Amino acid sequence: PDEIAEWHQKASDPIYAFVEDICEANSEAWISKDELYDVFIEYCDKQNIPRIGIESFGRALKNAKNVHVVFKRRGPRGVQKTGWLGIQLREKEKSEIDMEV
């Protein structure tokens, strides 16, 4: 029964599925908004899930039940990047991305 509920949750909520499959919570971790969204788009394409825009992705990520994130700026003034505090890619995903770059 739990497996069926999990499958249904993933099928009906692509953000939930993405966080469960690709990410992990880490209160100290920060990832750029663009990098996380790019990985999400790759995930959608591989899983045959409809894509959503970056703004919708951000809103959905803030409201996700399976991770708590905060939108945060990093870097020196003038060249700051925006990103997410509280989430990181799993080690396997990081190494696959590093190989693609």
In short:
With 101 residues, this protein is α+β, with helices and mostly antiparallel strands.
Structure description:
There is one protein chain. The chain is 53% helix and 24% strand. By secondary structure, the protein is α+β, with helices and mostly antiparallel strands. A three-stranded antiparallel β-sheet has the order 1-3-2. Strand 2 (70-74) and strand 3 form a beta hairpin. Helix 1 crosses helix 2. It is globular and about 50 Å long. Residues 11-77 form the DNA primase/nucleoside triphosphatase C-terminal domain. It holds the Pfam family Pox_D5. This is DNA primase/nucleoside triphosphatase C-terminal domain-containing protein.
Tags for this entry?
alpha+beta, 101 residues, three-stranded antiparallel beta sheet, globular, Arc Repressor Mutant, subunit A, 3 strands
- Under CATH at level 1, the class stands as Mainly Alpha
Overall radius of gyration: 14 Å
Sheet having the most strands: 3 strands, antiparallel
CATH homology superfamily name: Winged helix-like DNA-binding domain superfamily/Winged helix DNA-binding domain
Structural category? alpha+beta
Strand content: 15-25%
Could you state the oligomeric state of the chains shown?
single chain
Give the overall shape, derived from the CA principal axes: globular
Number of domains: 1
Low-confidence stretches: none
What is the count of helical runs? 5
Give the strand line-up of the largest sheet.
Answer: 1-3-2
CATH architecture: Orthogonal Bundle
Number of strands: 3
- Spell the H/E element sequence: HHEHHEEH
What is the CATH third-level topology name? Arc Repressor Mutant, subunit A
Average pLDDT figure = 89
The separation of the N and C termini measures 40 Å
Pfam families: Pox_D5
Protein name: DNA primase/nucleoside triphosphatase C-terminal domain-containing protein
Organism: marine sediment metagenome
